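Subject: design request, 227 residues
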């Protein structure tokens, strides 16, 4: 079972154009259980994505730290930071897909360092696309696909190499009710495989999902437990 992710007194500050500082995250202290589905909800602009990026190792806090198994992953640099990111799957809200590559090729990208045969990599990528209900799009360039289809490619790419942790930003964006339910079911299945799931969302359909183990709410850079 993956270890919990512990945030200890996380603060994130930035400067305004006039040079005055403003606070994005304010003294965040919380534990996100390993092998569980954790939800951070709250309004747009509350700081949810910033906290997700700090936990995933994409952003450094101004102060405080993120611990995993007692190790300060938020302070790591260089090769150690890269190793932490290799343990994590990240599904961004704004996709960051390669527009001139096909859906299959985009999902293949995180598998390349594994050094396996191309046949095996294509099998894994194909299965990930199939699990997201978009196997028929494997050969399509992402630039011609809808926002909802791109989001599912994004999720397939995050899950394809069986990460220990998956950080997901607005997974049900641009999805109808059936597709949103399918995505949440795929994330629940990931949890059953002992993958720690941390979701950021302001979608009430996600908040109502009965598979959520721990619910936190972010408002104005402050985090509180909901249940």
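Subject: RE: design request

Done. Sequence follows.
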């Amino acid at each position: 079972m993956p270890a919990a992710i512990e945030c200890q007194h996380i603060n994130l500050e930035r400067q305004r154009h006039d040079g005055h500082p403003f606070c994005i995250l304010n003294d965040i202290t919380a534990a996100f259980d390993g092998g569980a589905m954790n939800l951070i909800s709250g309004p747009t602009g509350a700081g949810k994505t910033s906290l997700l990026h700090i936990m995933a190792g994409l952003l450094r806090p101004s102060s405080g730290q993120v611990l995993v198994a007692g190790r300060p992953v938020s302070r790591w640099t260089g090769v150690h930071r890269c190793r932490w990111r290799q343990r994590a799957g990240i599904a961004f809200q704004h996709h960051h897909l390669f527009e001139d590559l096909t859906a299959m090729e985009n999902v293949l990208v995180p598998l390349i360092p594994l050094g396996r045969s191309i046949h095996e990599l294509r099998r894994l990528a194909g299965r990930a696309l199939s699990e997201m209900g978009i196997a028929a799009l494997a050969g399509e360039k992402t630039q011609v696909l809808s926002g909802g289809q791109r989001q599912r490619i994004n999720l397939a790419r995050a899950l394809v190499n069986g990460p220990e942790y998956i950080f997901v930003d607005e997974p049900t964006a641009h999805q109808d009710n059936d597709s949103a339910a399918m995505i949440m079911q795929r994330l629940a299945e990931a949890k059953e495989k002992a993958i720690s799931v941390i979701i950021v969302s302001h979608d009430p359909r996600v908040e109502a999902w009965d598979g959520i183990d721990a619910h936190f709410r972010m408002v104005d850079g402050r985090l509180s437990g909901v249940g």
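The mean pLDDT is 90.
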